[in-house]
UniProtKB/TrEMBL annotation:
GO CC terms of this entry: cytoplasm
One example GO MF annotation: phosphatase activity
Record's protein name: Broad specificity phosphatase PhoE
Pfam families hit by this protein: His_Phos_1 (PF00300)
Amino acid sequence: MTTTTVVHLLRHGEVHNPKGVLYGRLPGYHLSENGSRMAGLAADWFAGRDIAALRTSPLDRARETSRPLSGAFGLDAEVDDRLVEAANHLQGIVLSSRSLANPKVMRRAYNPFRPSWGESYSQIVERMVEAVKTARKEAWGREAVCVSHQLPIWMTRRAAERKRLWHRPDRRQCGLASVTSLTFEDYKLVSVGYSEPAASLYAGGSASTSGT
């Protein structure tokens, strides 16, 4: 008999960011009203599932996304620093064609395969895999939810599917408040699933917010 465990990677909801700042790991960026509704829809999607563990990135937007789940399942969200957003040397800038042409920005953009502007893809995968293993152990035979961010979740999925880590950011399948589900039989990954519980709230049908 094998033991089936599912680890769900939940991306946070929409963030209040009217100036279009690349906020990365900066503090003080919270869910918008729409983002809070997204978090609620995500919690509804998990209703009836056997959730035994809840872990979250330390950033405000992720912790706020975890709260409806915490209330629904009576679980405290354990903060796991390994689930944090990817480090980015460009955080704090306002994204525009002008800012992207800035020589200081261009100096960071010489190698998109690593990438040179922040934490390497391989480093992201390494820490996320360890976070998933911890969640799997904690929820063994049941299900766990880990609230994280677009790039870390997408890197985990590409690694799970044995795809190259370098990719086009505009082709990531990781919408706001989306769920990427990793199903294990004992320690073996047997499937990767994807769902968008909050798709009805995506502005203009788009779920991406500058890879955050």
